[in-house]
Amino acid sequence: MTRDRTILRISQAHVAPGMSLDRWQEIVTRNGLQLTDDPLAWGAVSNEGIAAIVSEIAAAVKEAREK
User: Fold this and answer.
1) Among 63, 66, 49, 64, which residue's Cα sits nearest to residue 10?
2) What's the burial of 16, exposed, middle or buried (CB within 10 Å: 0-12/13-18/19+)?
3) What one-character DSSP code corresponds to residue 1?
4) Residue 55 clears pLDDT 90, i.e. is over it
5) Max Cα separation, the chain?
6) Distance in angstroms (rounded) separating the CA atoms of residues 64 and 4
7) What is the pLDDT of residues 8-50, one digit of tens each?
8) Which residue, 64, 67, 66, is CA-closest to 18?
């Protein structure tokens, strides 16, 4: 999956099971995303940061589905 597609999926993840907007914001800001309406802010997030965001969101969703 391309970086842009991954970012698109991350940006929609706050509606996934086990997630909330508050939890999403906490995860993405901890991994380098400045909360702004500027889509170019994603450029400041490293590939490692993207991978960490994906991993944390996936873990939260997995946990919610197992309950």
Assistant:
1) 49
2) middle
3) -
4) yes
5) 37
6) 26
7) 999 999 999 999 999 999 999 999 999 999 999 999 999 999 9
8) 64
Check: CB of residue 32 under 8 Å from CB of residue 46.
yes
Q: Which amino acid is at 26?
A: E
| Pair 18, 64: CB distance under 8 Å | yes
Q: Can you give the pLDDT at residue 67?
A: 83
Size of the chain, expressed as the number of residues it contains: 67
- Yes or no: say if 34 and 41 are a contact pair by the CB < 8 Å rule: yes
What is the number of structural domains in the chain? 1
How far are the Cα atoms of 5, 26, 28, 66 from residue 8, in angstroms, in the given order?
5, 17, 13, 25
Q: What is the pTM (predicted TM-score) of this model?
A: 0.92
Host domain of residue 52: 3-66
